[in-house]
Give the backbone structure.
Amino acid sequence: DAKTTQPPSMDCAEGRAANLPCNHSTISGNEYVYWYRQIHSQGPQYIIHGLKNNETNEMASLIITEDRKSSTLILPHATLRDTAVYYCIPRNQAGTALIFGKGTTLSVSS
Amino acid sequence: GAGVSQTPSNKVTEKGKYVELRCDPISGHTALYWYRQSLGQGPEFLIYFQGTGAADDSGLPNDRFFAVRPEGSVSTLKIQRTERGDSAVYLCASSRGGANTGELFFGEGSRLTVL
């Protein structure tokens, strides 16, 4: 599985966009990039995933570079409830388990 | 609808005791995962079931840990001769299985404290 590098922590003002980077330079061609988040004292929550193209859903947008070596999760209008640890996880679709790293702790403040 | 349910939510036990943690997955989900999470760390993979069989148990730390899913639904994680280092939150997740199964639904976890 590809290794990932994420900043340990980030701050964001409420209402502003939060851009969370992830480096996955060793990602293989059949690995998708998954993003999860974990709010304090809760189980992780799926956010979004993609392979090559940028993706958007009701929670976030995912921008993947053309060489697929990095990606950015964008929360367009962060709220206090978005304070959480965000995990970037490369995974192939062969039914393997998700392997979590340490993630980025995002703190949203008013 | 009902999500993944884990019981007990909290368990305190003494070193050397036997513990069982239960997971009720979302109805119809064929894949089930167990993770454990220590303070300040990301979830650590333990075992993954596809149906009744363990598809990958490479994350189980030693032979004191065992998990079953006899009917392909409810799963039980069993820990023998507990040690203080086993203290953690044990998370269960389920998914639909098959291709494109990276969307896992997690329970709230069972917090195990070994005194």
Summary: Strands of chain A lie at 9-13, 18-23, 31-38, 45-50, 55-56, 61-64, 70-75, 84-92, 104-109. Chain A has a mean pLDDT of 94. Chain A touches chain B at residues 32, 34, 38, 41-46, 49, 85, 87, 91, 93, 95-103 (CB under 8 Å).
